[in-house]
Write a structure and sequence with these properties.
The protein is built from 8 helices and no strands. With about 170 residues, it is mainly α. The chain has one domain. Helix 6 packs across helix 8. The two termini are about 30 Å apart. The mean pLDDT is about 75.
Length: about 170
C-alpha cells in the first residue's frame, strides 16, 4: 500500500472536482457528496461486512455517528461535519443557501488554523468553502489511511500473540 501516492491522488481528485464549481449552492451540494464519499470510504475500510453496511442506506448523520465510535479523529471535526450537513439540509429545503449558516461553518472551520479558509473567509465565501471542503475530505482520507494502518498493525499483533500462545 503506497499511502503517500494514494493521498496525493485523492488530493488532486478533490481539488480538480471542486475548482470547477463557482456557485455557492452547487458547491454546498457537491461538497456534501464529496464529504459523504470520503466518509463511506473511511467506514468501508473498517467494517467487516461491507454489503450489509451499504444495505442499511444510512443517512449522513447516522454515518457520522458510526465514525465517532470507529475513529481516533478529533471530535471537533464531527461538530464541523454536523454543521455542514445542516447547511446542506437547509439548502435542500430552500431556494438559496443560508448565508448565515455558511458563514458560521466557515468561521468555525477557520478557527481550526486552516490558513486558506481564514485568508478567504471575509473576501470570497466560495473560495473559502472550496478550501474547507477540500481540507475536510483530505483529513478524512488521511484518517482513513491511518486507521487502516493501525488496524493492520493491531491484527498483526493479535496474530503474533495467538501464534505465541499455541
Amino acid at each position: 500500500m503506497n499511502s503517500e501516492k494514494e493521498l496525493d491522488d485523492y488530493y488532486k481528485f478533490v481539488q480538480e472536482y471542486l475548482w470547477e464549481i463557482n456557485e455557492i449552492e452547487l458547491l454546498v451540494l457537491k461538497g456534501h457528496n464529496l464529504i459523504e464519499h470520503a466518509i463511506n470510504r473511511y467506514i468501508a475500510d473498517l467494517v467487516m461486512r461491507l454489503e450489509e453496511f451499504y444495505k442499511l442506506n444510512l443517512s449522513f448523520s447516522q454515518k457520522l455517528g458510526i465514525m465517532r465510535f470507529m475513529t481516533v479523529m478529533h471530535l471537533k471535526i464531527f461538530e464541523m461535519l454536523t454543521l455542514f450537513n445542516k447547511v446542506r439540509n437547509e439548502l435542500s429545503h430552500n431556494l438559496h443557501a443560508d448565508k448565515n449558516s455558511i458563514d458560521k461553518f466557515l468561521l468555525q472551520w477557520s478557527y481550526r488554523d486552516d490558513e486558506r479558509v481564514k485568508e478567504h473567509y471575509q473576501k470570497d465565501n466560495v473560495l473559502a468553502l472550496k478550501y474547507a471542503i477540500r481540507n475536510i475530505c483530505v483529513e478524512l482520507n488521511f484518517g482513513r489511511i491511518g486507521a487502516k494502518l493501525s488496524n493492520h498493525i493491531h491484527s498483526q499483533i493479535r496474530l503474533d500473540e495467538m501464534l505465541k500462545n499455541k
